[in-house]
Specification:
276 residues; single chain; ABC transporter involved in vitamin B12 uptake, BtuC; mainly alpha; globular
Length: 276
């Protein structure tokens, strides 16, 4: 596909919206992934993405009582409550975090599939699992822009606190940082991100958009500043490039974005190996 063909595709609103969504969410999710991977929370983001399926099912169930009720607030509320519950259980019990995430994840998915099946909306699972970025509308773009701005502002403002909590948690407490509150806020931020981004990649692939760019950047970055810049660049490149690949070879957008992320990861691995 040449430049003229790409320019022609820009004339189609669904392609234009998809590219703008990728430009907004690719870098933002990648930046969030820096902190998620450093905190060892990759499985947490994946679990929330899958559990959001239940939020969608609850939204459809409520629409039988209140027709016209928008799904996004319902999914967001469910994801926030689930994230808060998991953070609270981890703080108050001796259960391992991976065990808490595992039963929350599987239980939520099972409940969501059961409710969707009972409502006769089982056929919607494909769209929920794999997403459809080409279905993004103007309202979705505004929500994505707000999310991207909030993510960069929140993580940038609290960067030192989170890094200190990762590297020296005892020192963070000595300095009087509200570690428990910051952990809860971080879980809620992840939940909000997952909710807004589900339409882009679906519940199965979304975690890759968050985790893979930061993982790739860690293979070649020498410090946190390099890690941040490279992660954001990789996230944006994979998201935008995935849409171009999707249009060029008539492939689904979500898998195209993830496969390009994997290719970039392998490239970073090769560069890191050459550097020793």
């Amino acid at each position: 596909m040449n430049g003229h063909d790409l320019l022609g595709l820009w004339q189609f609103p669904f392609v234009r919206h998809a590219l703008l969504s990728a430009l907004l969410l690719g870098p933002a999710c990648a930046y969030l992934g820096v902190f998620i991977t450093l905190r060892g929370m990759s499985f947490f983001s994946d679990a929330l993405a899958h559990a959001a399926l239940t939020g969608v099912a609850i939204g459809f169930l409520l629409q039988t009582v209140w027709p016209g009720l928008p799904l996004l607030p319902v999914v967001l509320l469910f994801s926030l409550l689930l994230a808060a519950a998991m953070a609270r259980i981890a703080e108050k019990t001796t259960l391992r975090p991976d065990a808490i995430i595992a039963f929350s994840f599987t239980g939520s998915v099972a409940l969501g599939v059961a409710v969707l099946s009972k409502l006769g909306k089982y056929r919607l699972l494909d769209g929920l699992l794999f997403g459809d970025i080409y279905a993004s509308g103007t309202a979705d773009l505004w929500a994505e822009a707000a999310l991207a701005l909030a993510l960069f502002a929140f993580l940038g403002w609290n960067r030192r606190a989170y890094l200190l909590g990762i590297v020296q948690p005892d020192l963070a407490r000595v300095e009087g940082l509200p570690v428990a509150r910051l952990n809860l806020l971080f879980a809620l931020v992840v939940a909000a991100t997952v909710t807004v981004c589900i339409k882009m990649l679906g519940t199965l692939l979304l975690s890759g958009l968050i985790v893979i760019p930061a993982t790739a950047a860690r293979l070649v970055a020498k410090n946190f500043a390099q890690l941040t810049v490279l992660t954001i660049a990789l996230g944006g490149t994979a998201a935008l490039g995935g849409i171009v690949l999707s249009c060029t070879f008539d492939l689904p957008a979500g898998p195209s974005i993830i496969l390009l992320n994997i290719a970039l990861l392998l490239g970073c691995r090769a560069v890191g190996s050459r550097r020793g």
